[in-house]
Amino acid sequence: MKAIAFHLQKGGVGKTTLSVSVAWELANLGHRTVLIDCDPQGNSSSWLLEGNQEPEHELADVLLGKVDPEAAAVCVEDQLYCIPTFGLTHTLRNYAKSGLASEPFVIADMLEKLPFVYAVLDMAPGLGTIEQSALIATNEVVLTMTPEYFSLDGLETWAEGVKGIERGLRTKVHYDKLVVNALDLRIRQMRDVYAESLKAAREVYTINVDPVFRKAQEAHMPAQRMTGRDAMKPGVREELTKLAKGLVDGTGRK
Q1: How many domains does the chain have?
Q2: What is the bridge-based pairing of β-strands 80-83 and 177-183?
Q3: What does the mean pLDDT of the chain come to?
Q4: Residue 252 — pLDDT band, cuts 50, 70, 90?
Q5: Torsion angle (degrees, nearest 10) of CA 8, 44, 116, 95
Q6: Can you give the pTM of this predicted structure?
Q7: Do 128 and 30 form a contact (C-beta atoms < 8 A)?
Q8: Are 122 and 135 in contact (CB under 8 A)?
Q9: Which residue, 170, 229, 221, is CA-closest to 23?
Q10: pLDDT at position 143 over 60
Q11: The domain that contains 195 carries what CATH number?
Q12: Bridge-partner residues for 177, per DSSP?
């Protein structure tokens, strides 16, 4: 199984949007995929599981050894599953404070037991114990930013933080893909930031401004399922498909 995470220390850059959309895209390509909600707020869980039967278990139950990982996976549709986090219970947040520091490889151990082709990890901003455990468990991290100057600074800060994790845990975090989200090339500052972002990663993908992402989040469904006037722009859907295929076969472009 290949584990993929979308991350940056800054919030509001579209990590959850992209996690849900790419997980859906991978499943749509025919790959059995699980989205693992590693964010204590549980945003992607509420997004994906609206209208489903109330899940019995959450990610924290798995990490605490209370339930088998596969038993906690909720079928969303066809090939797409979700291991949720219940944001209102604060169980994952409490576990991160009390027990996770002594078990940095607990998420990696969990992934080894899951019968999926792909796992997509939705993560909160920051580099706390949950994020560290998730990052070292992944095969690939996709950096996610918005076209603003402080996001460029955030990329450098993130890379420095990850170097510390790698030294401390004697592991390697692989990242060579970057998504520039909510891009509008008509705006000069965004064009300038985008030009600089091309130097930051081997493969850079762009998601143009599209209000469908916001509407999809409000509707609690993947953006690809929005139809009619609320359907995604063709270019945005095409870029999501390219990103998903790049994660599957290793191809991409800068």
Answers
A1: 1
A2: unpaired
A3: 89
A4: very low
A5: 70
A6: 0.91
A7: no
A8: no
A9: 221
A10: yes
A11: 3.40.50.300
A12: 142, 203
